[in-house]
Amino acid sequence: MPLFGNTFSPKKTPPRKSASLSNLHNLDRSTREVELGLDYGTPTMNLAGQSLKFENGHWVAEAGLSGGVDQREAQRLRRRNQQLEEENNLLQVKVEVLLDMFSETTAEFQIMKKELEELKSVNRRRK
């Protein structure tokens, strides 16, 4: 029994083998991507029955699927929406102008009515 020594000394583990046990490292890159699933492709998702894919930084509806709106139709709808917004703005301006005209006419009418009553009262005093 040693006084200053450790009686427990585990054996050293043997070094690991450097060579891989699989043969995937022997495959070329394209085969390896297919085998390991590294070829992700474009991200896709399904929202409300419409399939979308991510291309060039934008989500785009996949072509050829029923229920989806194609790009031309979406562009036409955007143009129509823009036209309707412009028309709505024009009509709002027209309504404001008409309300201003109505207010001015009402004010003038009230002034004339007051003047007429003053003239009637002056005319009654003369008689």
Automatic annotation (TrEMBL):
Region named Disordered: 1-26
Classification via InterPro entries: Chibby_fam (IPR028118)
One Pfam assignment: Chibby
Keyword Coiled coil listed: yes
Ranges in a coiled coil: 67-101
Key words of the record: Coiled coil
Biased composition (Polar residues): 1-10
Record's protein name: Chibby
Organism annotation: Pipistrellus nathusii
